[in-house]
Design goal:
Number of helices of chain A: 7
Largest sheet of chain C: none
Radius of gyration of chain C: 17 Å
Strand content of chain A: under 5%
Helix content of chain C: over 70%
Shape of chain C: elongated
Chains: A mainly alpha (174), B mainly alpha (629), C mainly alpha (102)
Largest sheet of chain A: none
Largest interface: A-C, 91 and 75 residues
Order of helices and strands of chain A: HHHHHHH
Order of helices and strands of chain C: HHH
Structural class of chain C: mainly alpha
Number of strands of chain C: 0
Radius of gyration of chain A: 21 Å
Oligomer: heterotrimer
Number of helices of chain C: 3
Distance between the termini of chain A: 53 Å
Distance between the termini of chain C: 58 Å
Helix content of chain A: over 70%
Chain lengths: 174, 629, 102
């Protein structure tokens, strides 16, 4: 069973790497969906079926779909891919790569330093327990998360309106 | 009836405070009532107190001290706010209060058109209060307070019309030059205190005679420093340069401050500290020499001035030179007598000149005046009496009696008597010349400009009173061969030491010589300025004549010399020092701030990726620190 | 099911996080930057779930819940902002919105 974990992990990392290096937006989004699905598999193997399902439904299913809708609305045109390629010259990668390799090294060090924790029980923490935790000690957080979502909703609606910010009858992208 | 002494300086001070509060808003009539009334009430109280002092029964010391409180008590130094009335301060007080009242009455009409009416009376009241504090002070520190107070009022009043920067310059010049003297006075005061342990004037006199032998270095130093202070305030050599420029102030100010009272503060100081000067014959001789040279120098300068007020300014310098001369030879009461008569005729001359100036629309140049004898008859009479008293016209004027007494005493002086006498005599001749030059230029000759304003009652009364005093004022000190009634010196004998050798041999001859000098001077002025003025003009036009005239006109080049000796080097040093290292330090702080701004603002690119990079770098650094440390 | 060592799970989370960070720093397209941020949020969630699974507690999954809710709200608002930016600057270049310079 642990093989599945490692295979999914490799797929997730590879897919993520491809996401950040694609020039075509929709391709990148699709790779991102693959990555999220792989992470959902990882959750399954870790004994967290609820969040695995939520990852698929909400993250891959709603958030990514929202992304796709927005990309389509933007309607960027033919030259978008060439533009992206121009922006992704190797010189743009050097700095971030070095920085992130350093960060990666540090974090791996810190994680390894966490020191030989004994392998715990491979128990599955099911939806029932998570539900009991959510409506028990974490109910306040749940309510706040709900308010956050409401705020996000209102904000997105307001920001998404075109006329409200005095743009009048301005046309879309040229 | 001596208790109300406190009211004498307090009433004008109260007037000042009231006018500071409301002088701008109240109507002119109220301001004039407060301003003139406070001085008038002070004069009345002063008369009552003086009467009480005069009629004190024999046997008691003729003095009265009123200690108000102890000013401070620091390490053995405890000056008291104490008013000390004796014959000397009594005479000074009466003159200051009454002349002050008359001049303020004159200003009520004279300054009526001015916007700063309330301000003027406030300053004048403050001045009268400070001057009264000065003359009534029983403690040297309190005297210094009054000294500084009159200096402040002089500055404020010279620069009264402050919108013209020239007036401000004149005021600053007066203040800075007298400051030199004031600084010396302060050092002398400190010397006296540290050596004698007290600043109360009677105690200083006692302890100085007890502790210091005649001519000791400390006594000489203290006396010389006090002399420097007196020289500054009284505009004597070498600090006389401020007084001619001080004529930029209103005419009543010139009359009160720069003729009758403030400039005589130096004379009062020396007279008050006569014990100290008697201990140091060298310094006393210096007083006489300063007086003699100043009176000659100023007389020559007055001879060629064209501004009527500048003639009177140089005349004041010269007459105070006479007072210094008298003090220098030990004729203390003669000096005070001359102070009194000078206050009368000099303020009369100034007030009369003010009438002429106002009548001719602020015209100061005497060459543009003429023939005002018929147009302003009252003023002509007053001015003539004043000029006659200044010239010391024999027998009929007060000036004759006081100047003659000084000359007689100088003749009798043990050291250098002859030279000092000749200087005084020459000065008397020149005085008569320039005094009547003024009269002839302004009131005789053809009428050049018709006067537009005639004086009213408030101007006429002070002129009349002062003219009367300029005539009869001498009667209180008649010399031995003309009646022998030395009322004033008898009164002053209770406060001032008697002049050595009371009886003056050949007094009649001396009087005749002095009178002759006066008549000759008047005749000279008549010849050169009235009968044939072309002769004077031709003389002045010649090469030597015009050079001499320019030299005398500039006050013997003192301003030119001081400019080059002191002002220019000081300004140069200040300019060079502008970029000194302390300044550079503060400039560097500002520069560093600006540099940091330039550098740090370059990190604000507005670029989101840049900021994200910053976050990432920060995270890397902190985690590294957490891991390593 | 044998337990998976916590270090490996955390290592996965770290790797995903760093990859997301690279994406944020290197890409100029705003949409890609938002995608990379989503990757980073997801990685944080992985870390929480791994930790929760290690202790056999529901807390890890609860935290993932909250992260998920936050990410959803953030994506909604963020994409609305992207739309507004596009309407103003007519480009998805992140460097175009640099008026707060200096």
């Amino acid at each position: 069973m642990s093989h599945i974990f490692y295979i999914s992990a490799v797929i997730a990392v590879a897919a993520t790497l491809l996401v950040v290096t694609r020039t075509h937006t929709v391709h990148a989004l699709l790779y991102l969906v693959v990555s999220l699905l792989a992470v959902a598999m990882v959750f399954f193997t870790l004994g967290a079926p609820l969040v695995a399902a939520l990852e698929v439904i909400i993250y891959a299913g709603a958030v990514m779909v929202l992304f796709v809708f927005i990309i389509m609305m933007l309607n960027l045109g033919r030259h978008a891919v060439e533009r992206e390629r121009a922006w992704l010259a190797p010189s743009a990668w050097v700095g971030p790569t070095i920085l992130c390799l350093v960060l990666l090294a540090e974090l791996f060090y810190v994680v390894a330093l966490g020191g030989g924790a004994e392998a715990a029980e491979a128990a599955t923490v099911g939806p029932k327990e998570v539900g009991q935790a959510l409506f028990g000690p974490y109910v306040l957080g749940v309510e706040l998360a709900g308010m956050l979502l409401l705020a996000g909703l209102v904000g997105a609606y307001h920001l998404g309106r075109r006329e409200a910010l005095g743009e009048g009858a301005e046309e879309g992208p040229q | 009836m001596l208790k109300p002494l406190l009211l004498v300086p307090l009433l004008p001070l109260a007037g000042f405070l009231l006018l500071v509060l409301g002088g701008r808003r109240w109507p002119r009539a109220l301001v004039a009532v407060i301003g003139v009334g406070s001085a008038g009430l002070a004069a009345l109280v002063a008369s009552v107190v003086a009467g009480a002092l005069f009629y004190m029964p024999e046997g008691q010391p003729r003095e009265f001290t009123q200690t108000l409180w102890t000013w401070m008590s620091v390490g053995g130094f405890s000056p008291r706010i104490a008013l000390h009335l004796d014959a000397l301060s009594c005479v000074m007080m009466l003159v200051v209060a009454w002349v002050g009242f008359l001049i303020l009455l004159y200003s009520a009409e004279f300054m009526a058109d001015d916007d700063g009416y309330g301000r003027f009376f406030a300053y004048m009241d403050l001045f009268v209060a400070s001057m009264l504090v000065l003359v009534l002070a029983g403690d040297l520190l309190l005297l210094y307070l009054g000294w500084e107070g009159v200096g402040l009022c002089s500055y404020l009043l010279i620069g009264f019309w402050y919108r013209d920067p020239a007036n401000g310059r004149a005021a600053r010049k007066a203040f800075i030059v007298t400051r030199v003297g004031d600084a010396a006075f302060a050092v002398g005061l400190a010397l006296l205190f540290t050596q004698l342990g007290t600043s109360a004037i009677p105690e200083i006199a006692e302890r100085a005679t007890a502790q210091w032998a005649g001519g000791s270095t400390l006594a000489t130093a203290a006396a010389a420093l006090l002399l420097a202070g007196a020289v500054g305030k009284s505009a004597q050599l070498p600090l006389q340069v401020w007084l001619p420029d001080a004529m930029a102030g209103p005419t009543p100010t010139s009359a009160l401050i720069h003729a009758a009272t403030m400039v005589t503060a130096g004379v009062y100081l020396i007279a008050r500290m006569n014990v100290l000067f008697a201990l140091t014959p060298a310094v006393q001789l210096a007083v006489a020499i300063i007086g003699a040279t100043t009176l000659l120098l100023a007389s020559f300068a007055a001879l060629v001035q064209t501004d009527i007020k500048r003639v009177l300014a140089y005349s004041t310098i010269s007459q105070i030179g006479y007072m210094f001369l008298a003090l220098g030879v030990g004729a203390w009461s003669a000096a005070i007598f001359h102070f009194m008569t000078h206050a009368f005729f000099k303020s009369l001359l100034f007030l009369g000149a003010g009438v002429v100036i106002m009548a001719l629309h602020h015209e100061h140049d005497m060459r543009k005046m003429g023939g005002l004898r018929k147009e302003l008859p009252g003023t002509f009479g007053a001015f003539l009496i004043g000029a006659a008293s200044l010239a010391a016209l024999p027998l009929v004027t007060a000036g004759f009696y006081s100047k003659d007494l000084i000359l007689a005493r100088v003749w009798m002086a043990p050291t250098g008597g002859l030279w000092l006498y000749l200087a005084g005599l020459a000065g008397a001749l020149l005085t008569a010349v320039y005094a009547f030059r003024m009269v002839f230029l302004v009131f005789f000759g053809p009428l050049k400009e018709k006067p537009s304003r005639r004086p009213g009652v408030a101007i006429g009364i002070p002129l009349a009173v002062l003219a009367t005093l300029s005539i009869v004022g001498g009667l209180i000190e008649l010399p031995a061969n003309l009646g022998g009634r030395p009322v004033l010196s008898g009164f002053l004998a209770s406060a001032l030491p008697p002049t050595a050798a009371e009886a003056i041999p050949a007094e009649g001859w001396l009087q005749a010589v002095a009178g002759l000098a006066c008549i000759v001077g008047v005749w000279f002025a008549y010849l050169y300025f009235l009968r044939s003025p072309m002769l004077a003009d031709r003389l002045a036009a010649s090469a030597a004549g015009s050079a001499l005239r320019r030299f005398w006109f500039s006050g013997w080049g003192f301003d030119w010399a001081y400019e080059r000796l002191f002002i220019r080097p000081y300004v140069w040093i200040a300019r060079v020092n502008k970029g000194d290292f302390i300044d550079a330090f503060y400039a560097a702080v500002a520069w560093a701030g600006r540099l940091a701004h330039t550098l740090l603002s370059q990190t604000q690119t507005g670029n989101v990726r840049w900021y994200a990079m910053g976050l990432a770098i920060g995270a890397v650094v902190f985690i590294a620190l957490a891991v390593l440390l | 099911m044998t337990a998976i060592p916590m270090e490996h799970g955390l290592a996965l989370a770290v790797a995903l996080f760093v990859l997301g960070l690279v994406g944020v720093l290197a890409r100029r397209n705003i949409v890609f930057m938002l995608m990379s941020i989503e990757i980073m949020l997801n990685a944080a969630g992985v870390a929480f779930v791994v930790a929760g699974a290690r202790w056999g507690a529901a807390d890890g999954q609860v935290m993932f819940f909250f992260i998920l809710a936050t990410a959803a709200a953030e994506v909604a608002v963020g994409l609305a902002l992207v739309l507004q930016l596009y309407h103003r600057f007519h480009t998805v270049d992140a460097d175009a919105a640099s008026k707060m310079r200096g």
